[in-house]
Sequence to fold (636 residues):
Amino acid sequence: MKFIHELTHGNPDKKVTVLHEGSVLAEGSLADVQAEREGRRGLSWPLAAVPR
Amino acid sequence: MQLVAKIMCYAMCALAMDLIWGYTGILSLGHGVFFALGGYAMGMYLMRQIGSDGQYRMPMPDFMVFLNWKQFPWHWALSDSFVAQMLLVVLAPGLLAFVFGFFAFRSRIKGVYFSIITQAMTYAMMLLFFRNETGFGGNNGFTDFKRILDVPLADADDADAPLRHHRLHADRLLPDGAGDRRQQVRPRPAGDPATPRAGVMFTGYDPLRYKLAIWTLSAVMCGIAGALYVPQVGIINPSEMTPAASIEIAIWTAVGGRATLIGPIVGALLRQRREELVHAGASPSTGCTRSARCSSPSRCSCRRASSAWCAARTASSRACAAAAFTGRGERVVTPDLMRAGAVARRAAESGRSPRAAGRSGGRAASYSRVVRPGELDIAHGAILYLDDITVSFDGFKALNALSLSISAGEMRCIIGPNGAGKTTMMDVITGKTRPDAGKAFFGSTIDLLRLRENEIASIGVGRKFQKPTVFEQLSVFENLELALKADRGVRASLFFRLSGAQLDRIGETLVLIHLKEQAQRTAGLALARPEAVARDRHAADPESAPAAARRAGRRHDRRGDRAHRRAVPLARRQPFAGRSSSTT
Fold:
């Protein structure tokens, strides 16, 4: 996750797509995904711990 | 002299095996067929050369007279022509290998399954040639040869007679002293700069073409070896096609060492020596090693031996390395429009260049412009477009109506837990997996679902696997050569020459990955160094790269990522609390 954060931090052009059970669960910047409830549920890991 | 000649025939045969097994990893247990086919082609001509000197004093071969044949079968029509039969020596094994290999490789039969069907082919051919109706002499085959090109064949007691005969003719044809000067010709040393530099590419190669080319070449080599062998031993029969004979060829190569040029030769010589020792300890009647009239050559040491052909070592090893990967040799070059298109898109989005909108890769884009087939068209912004992709494995939906659009120049991170479908999505994009439903387009016009893996790689869709997939036996420099853009055709690869620009490109990359000093080392050794492992792990597990680079005392950077604005979908499996993690 730290790697994803390093790649996408401060650059809204770099998007993150969250897959879950073969479908797109969430899509957008990392901040958007982190804020998205469904995204957090799909990831099943503490996104809040990732520094913004 | 005759023993040396036979060993050289063995060497050709074993080299052929080494070429296909040692360098490509394709174990053939059917090379005895190709050897025998070449031998039979030569044997047909030798039988016609007997003329009326046979036991029956008839113009037809003795076995045909014995079987009451009234005329030659159709495949004997050109058997009295030396040239035609020499063509047959090449064509018969070559054609059989081509047809067999085409269907086998196209069906992706490999490993032990390929070995098994080669054995089946051998056995089938042996049964066919055992039949008298085929016109190949049945169980006895061809024997009792008298002459070749009107030159009497050697007896066991006078094996050098043909050599002397040809030497006499050659001395007549050559001017005085030419015979001495011939000995002054020195072979070109290995590594001569004039030697054509062959190269292969890591991606975009069609394994079918390469495997087929190497497989056919190997079969032809075996056929030629068989043709040269038959006049030495004076007999050819279906016993040369026994499965055991083919296995024996593989053993020669295995004993001496695969993927070496001297290995098969050593293996065959060891086997020859062993046979001689065995025969020396047996009764004199079985010691037929040097007999030109050996009645059962498949049982004695006068069989084929090892390898000694090496002029194309570099070419073959690289071509074979490419054959182990996906790709096809069509003249499809990765489009350079991607970077330009990405720049144009970013400029358009930032508003800095309004003119950039509506342009694709620097080209004017309009509704009236005709897109050529296979051309990458990113006029609509998306370089990768997935729509309703569904993939099921035995009822389990790995991808469920997945839709995704990635713009030119965009870096997209694909994340998700185990089983989310990240790898399957990559498989669909790169052609490894065909979806049950949906569409996948590269640009607006290239349908990825209609292309094979190598074709997809050729048009510019690359893939980095989790595990580093360098060719460890090649040097770092050669690995980078394989990654260059170039024609992926078999011939183009074999005669590939580095241009100055390509050399510069490799040099830049070597500096970038901090392996300039290791350029000539084998990749396996170079990657074993700690600082190299850091870079390697950068590729396999980028998260570890900053720390590894710090340990190596270097600044971590992603110039490689930033230098080329390509669309980069990254898939990463996220760590679960209390579970193991890995990267895709």
